[in-house]
TrEMBL record:
Enzyme Commission number: 6.3.5.3
Keyword ATP-binding assigned: yes
Keywords per UniProt: ATP-binding, Cytoplasm, Glutamine amidotransferase, Hydrolase, Ligase, Nucleotide-binding, Purine biosynthesis
Gene3D superfamilies in the cross-refs: 3.40.50.880
Pfam families associated with the record: GATase_5
Name assigned to this protein: Phosphoribosylformylglycinamidine synthase
Molecular function via GO: ATP binding; hydrolase activity; phosphoribosylformylglycinamidine synthase activity
Species in which this protein is naturally found: Rubripirellula amarantea
Length: 271
């Protein structure tokens, strides 16, 4: 853990087609961080820019139009031009955080940083593919957090109600052994669940509870350290209590929306 006491600085990485960078920067700022939106081309011109930041965030959207596969082109650009930057956040001295939201998680899956250390060969142990019904799906989902997960972002959170909005968000493990390795290490940190707060379930739940058909209802995955995390739902879209779809019908308003705690956890980690 870092000994730094000032507000952490967040690099919210933009690329052509990114569309959640403003909201994501707002969420980090509301949680007490200093967030800057930086275009990938500025980083390629000047990779030393990365040294200003303690948190790297890949926001949601349609980077490079989701061409080839969602997240593929941005991941390839990062691998070709900014591998050192990615490595310094993911590994480095272990004193930085990485968060990917939706298209950001897709980029991180393509980079392999969320499932590192699981395969014994060079084949990816898991991927994200098209939702079962083959369409873009936009709806609010109930999520359960794996209490034994090392994920820095979900500490102290049991459940969340967040919007999801994606076409290529179905988590698929290569085989049962890859899935159980990830699960046993608490790396399948966030799962779709039903309204009854049933908690984490490995049995695939029906649509629309599990909106895409993901193996073990996986909605978010972290690395072995818990510092590197990606999720398909959008915490930055539920920051204020009034973002909740039924806020006018609730008797009591919570202080914040469910998504804020994840950003607060990230800031807290540097305190
Ligand atoms: N909200 C998003 O980030 C969208 C992710 C991606 N473009 C998809 O549809 O799968």
């Amino acid at each position: 853990m870092s000994t730094q006491s000032v507000a952490p600085r967040v690099l919210v990485l933009r690329a052509p087609g990114t569309n959640c960078d403003e909201e994501t920067a707002f969420a980090f700022e509301k949680a007490g961080a200093i967030a800057e939106r930086v275009h990938v081309n500025r980083l390629i011109e000047n990779p030393a820019l990365k040294d200003r930041y303690q948190i790297l965030c890949f926001p949601g959207g349609f980077s490079y139009g989701d061409d080839i596969a969602a997240g593929r082109i941005l991941a390839t650009r990062l691998r070709e031009h900014l591998a050192g930057m990615v490595d310094s956040f993911v590994h480095g001295n272990g004193d930085r955080l990485v968060l990917g939201i939706c298209n950001g998680m897709q980029v991180m899956m393509r980079l392999g940083v969320l499932t590192e250390g699981v395969s014994e060969d060079d084949q990816p142990p898991a991927t994200l593919t098209w939702n079962n019904h083959g369409r873009f799906e936009d709806r609010w989902v109930h999520l359960a957090v794996d209490a034994k997960s090392p994920c820095v972002f979900t500490q102290g959170i049991e459940k969340m109600y967040l919007p999801m909005a994606h076409a290529e968000g179905k988590f698929v493990a290569r085989d049962e052994s890859a899935l159980s390795r990830l699960r046993d290490a608490g790396r399948l940190a966030v799962r779709y669940t039903d309204e009854s707060d049933a908690g984490v379930s490995d049995e695939v739940l029906p649509f629309p509870i599990n909106p895409n058909g993901a193996d073990a209802n996986v909605a978010g995955v972290c690395d072995a350290s818990g510092r590197v995390f990606g999720l398909m739902p959008h915490p930055e879209r539920h920051i204020e209590a009034t973002h909740h779809p039924f806020w006018t019908r609730r008797k009591e308003q919570p202080e914040h929306g469910d998504g804020l705690a994840m950003f607060q956890n990230a800031v807290q980690w540097f305190a």
